[in-house]
Amino acid sequence: KNMIRRIALKSTSKGWRSSCTALAPNSNPAPLLTARRQGRASSAVGWSRPLSSTATTTNSAAAGGPTPYVKGDSTHFGYSQVSVNEKEGKVREVFDKVADSYDLMNDLMSGGLHRLWKDYLLDVSNVSSMARMTRSRVAATNRGTTSDATAPTPTTVAPELAILDVAGGTGDVAFRFLDAADCVERSKSSGVDPVSITVCDINHEMLRVGEARARSRFGNAVLDETQSLRFVQGNAQSLEFPDNSFDLYTIAFGLRNVTDVDMALREANRVLKPGGRFMCLEFSHVTIPILEQIYETYSFQVIPAMGELVANDRESYQYLVESIRKFSKQPELLSRMQAAGFQEAKYTNLTGGIVALHEGWKAI
C-alpha cells in the first residue's frame, strides 16, 4: 500500500497527469460550468504545473457509433459472464456487503489516493463559485438587493443550482459539494436553500450509511429544513427525475458497476439542463508502463488479500478489481459519451491513468 501510494504521488509531481480532449464535430461550447481554477487538490499533489498532451478521437458517431456496451443476453460481472438481468442483483450484493466499510474499501483500492482524486473533482467543478453566484442572484430577486447573499428564501422555491451525484450512496462526494457551497452555514437561515445536492444510489444500504453520516456530521437542518441535501434510491439506467432537471451530474467510481453504460450515459444527458455538465471520475487504464506493472501486482495480489484480512470478504474485492479491467478504456468511454449526445467531451488522466476524469456538456 505504501509503495503504490509513494509511486502514485511521485507520478503526479512529475507531471503524469495528461489532459486528452476529443471534440464532437460542429459542437458548441456550453457557457455553463466551464471555468476551471487551480485550488487545494491540485497544489496538494503537485498538479499546478502538469505536463499535458491533447489528442482527438475518431468520429465514432459518423461510423455508426461505438459497439453497444451490452451485446446479447449476457454481460460481464468481473471476469465472469452472467445474464444481463442477473448482474444488477450481483452488484447490489457486493455493495450490501461493503456499505459499512465503503471508505475503507476505497482506501484499500486506491492506497488512500481516492481522497485527493475527489478533491480534484470538486476543484474543477467550481461548485463553490456557482453556489455563491446562485445565492447572490436569488437574494437580489427576493430582497431587491445584492448585499445579502444568505437571505432566507421562500419555502416553495425550486432549486436554482441543482446537483445530482449518482452512485454516491455514502455521500463522500456530495459532502464535499455541501461544504464547498456553504450549505451548512445556509441551514442556519430559514427557507429552502436554492442550492440542492441529490445523492442517488441503487443500493439502500449505501444510502442508509450516507444519510446517517450526513445527520451526524452536518445535523438535521440541511436535510429536513433547508433541503440542501437529499438521498434518493434510483437506478442510473432509468432515473426517476424529469428532463432538464440538473446543472451538474457527477458519478464517482460507480459507472463501471452499471449493467448498461450506454443507457446510463443517455439518462445522464436527459436529466441535465441544456448546457449542464457531466463529470465521471472512475478507475481506468494505466498509461505508464512501469506504474502499470506495479499497479497490476498491487490490484490482484494485495487488494483481495487485504479485503479478506480487513473485511473478511475477498470475493467482493476480487470483483471490484476485475471490474476495473473490464471497463472501457479512456478513448472508448469518450466515444460513448459523444454517442449519448455530450459535447466538448474530454478526459484527464490522474496518477498515470489509474483514474480518469471524463467531462462533457449537454447541448444548448
Structural notes for this entry:
- This protein is α/β, with parallel strands linked by helices and 364 residues long.
- Helix content is 44%, strand content 18%.
- The protein has 14 helices and 10 strands.
- The chain has an 8-stranded mixed beta sheet, with helices on both faces. Strands 2-3 form a two-stranded antiparallel ribbon.
- Helix 11 links the parallel strand 7 and strand 8.
- The longest helix has 23 residues.
Report how far the terminal alpha carbons are from each other: 45 Å
The proportion of residues forming helix, as a percent range, comes to 40-55%
Q: Biggest β-sheet, characterized?
A: 8 strands, mixed
Widest sheet, order of strands:
1-9-10-8-7-4-5-6
* Helix/strand order: HEHEEHHHHEHHEHHEEHEHHHEE
Tally of DSSP helical segments: 14
Query: Radius of gyration in whole Å, from Cα?
Result: 20 Å
**Beta-strand proportion:** 15-25%
- Tell me the overall shape: globular
- pLDDT under 50 segments (min length 5)? 1-62
Output the structural class: alpha/beta
E-strand count = 10
Mean pLDDT score: 80
